[in-house]
Specification:
Layout: E1 18-25, E2 30-35, E3 39-44, E4 54-57, E5 62-68, E6 72-77, E7 82-84, H1 85-90, E8 104-113, E9 116-125, E10 128-135, E11 140-146, E12 154-162, E13 165-172, E14 176-183, H2 189-194, E15 199-200, E16 203-207, E17 209-210, E18 213-224, E19 227-235, E20 242-249, E21 254-260, E22 270-271, E23 275-280, E24 283-291, H3 296-299, E25 313-316, E26 328-331, E27 335-340, H4 362-368, H5 374-387, H6 393-410, H7 417-426, H8 437-443, H9 447-456, H10 462-474, H11 477-480, H12 542-553, H13 558-565, H14 570-589, H15 603-623, H16 628-650, H17 652-664
Parallel strand pairs: 11-15
Antiparallel strand pairs: 1-2, 2-3, 3-4, 5-6, 6-7, 8-9, 9-10, 10-11, 12-13, 13-14, 14-16, 17-18, 18-19, 19-20, 20-21, 22-23, 23-24, 24-27, 25-26
Amino acid sequence: ISDQKPLGCWSVKHGQILTCPVVCNFETHEYIAVHDDKVLRIWKNEDINLDKAFKATLSADVYRIHSLPNGGPVVLFKGGGVRTLDVLLEAPQQEIENVISDEVIRWSGAFMEGQQPVLIFTTEKDGDFFVYVQKPKLSSLHKYKLEQQESSKPLCFTAHTTNQTVTLLCLYSNDSVYQVLIPLQQYTEEEEEEKEEEILSRSLLLNLSVSGSVLKGTSLVVLDKDHVAVLGSLAAPGKEPRECLTIWNTKFQTLQTSKELPLGTTGQLWCYEEKFFLTHGKVLTVIMYKCETSSLAAAVGKLKDSQTPDVSSFVNWNTLEDEELVVSFQSQESVALKSESRMNLRSRRSSAAKVQPENVSVGQLLLNLKDASTYVLENELRQLMAKAPTPDLQATIGCVVTALTDRCKTNPKYYPKNFLLQIVETRDLSYSLCPDLMAVALERKDVQLLQICLQRFPDIPEEITYACLEAFLSISEAHLQSEDVNLDSVICYIDVEFDNKEVKTEVVENGFNAEMDQDMCDTKIPKKPQSRSDGESCPVGPQKAALLNAVLHSAYTETFLLPHLKNLPAQQAILFLRYLYYLYVKCSEKVNTTLPGIRSPTINQIMDWMCLLLDAHFTVIVMLPEAKELLASLHKFVRAQVRFYSELNKIEGSLQELQRLNHLRDSQTYSIEVLEII
């Protein structure tokens, strides 16, 4: 989410439907899915085709799979039966009992109580609601009935366990949250029969109303023992309902904080590892929060920072405000919320800002500098970076870069190249922290900044990587000679004369002999003295080679780079392939297949990009006459390499025996031995 990069995508066949949420098995690092109610699929991240993944057809319809960090996956069937995944896989067609009759499951959750997984689910039948608690490893099942209320009914549920007790929270249609306590102790068969129709009493936990406004909740999650989050529509008298995310203190019945969601939501709210996940408009919003110890002073907003400075809060909802750079709220609540931009989550993970009331926030300062002169803007930004506190330094620098790029977009004549270079070279940044920086650099054709970003940013999207590649290939060599490009990655293996022409070097390729392999390729290519594609001369200048090396070092996911790579013009694709072939030959000159220099491409990077390029443009390259000689040379060289390594494999046993003899020999004794390899 932080890098805005999809890492994998799997799909079922046409006509098949995924019928419950996919989960991850924390123990085996596998994904588990169910399609068409009964078909179980299990696969790993490196698996590409879901149709070839493990498949098991079950005997009953699955309602949901719950994955527990230390307890493994637990499968809940629509009939109320529960199995751990291990037991289910031993006999996928085993009969699954029907625990419920004419009831419909409305919600389910799973927890670990000690070393035992506990699964709880609620059902509905004719307006009555029932609660089932199961311990699948102990074959324990308890059924309860929820206390009825004539004027309202449960809308959603959530639960947590403490001290052998399940605390079930129910959001009702009368805009209230009720609490139900369910013990987890074991009963004898006689006690179980007596408690079969036990009715669970409930107690009012929270009224969702404040200052005459009522929250019509749709989703409820527990944050800790004293705080809950509710997503819903806030209805005030005489006003249109507004969707809001709210945080409530259940101990003191107070609304801690809230935020309006003007773009609307789906009504769903998830909470995982102190982060909220919700859809706002068309984007997934991630909001980080932190719950402090609840106190009455904090709940009513009377907590003084001088008394307990560690509880002061910084609230930043900038994900939800597209018009503003940063919107910060000074608050003294005991719940500290920090909404992270979907582009900035990872880079700000360590931020925990403590804003003093007398200080101007970073967001407000940047807004004040929006119309300032260039000199004032850059001077203030330099001071801001110099005095930013250590925990917030990275987030502050991200705001600084954003302010600079925003001005570049509004003022075409403004481009602080040296300032941006200084920031990128001296600060630990990432693409997700300043997503507009490389786009602006591409627009201004600042190849020096792009090269540094490619070398330093670990999270560049494939679309931007491709845009850099296309830009580097399209820029003329004459223009690049005037650019200050770092040549550390090429200077050790490209010999340059004063006229920037490469000096031909002797190529001694591993296992390659031109005379021996003349007949290896059936394609007869006429010799052209002016056109060389045999890998001995670099097809691009040193500046362009250094820029292309930066692209080769950039991380990518093949699935998502390939569609962009197909858009590369044919002539540029051939030029890039010639350069990759040149690097391949250069690597083969060395025994360790490693190019000299700093940040030089590795043999694996070269081969991966060569395969990617051929996959994206194979048909076009085969049809182009100017590419035939290149393909023939590449084919001949690869076959020679394969033959050479094949010969090495034949003597591998003899070499291993020689190594063993060397270990047995006394190293202090001088001797000359002749070993004949037959």
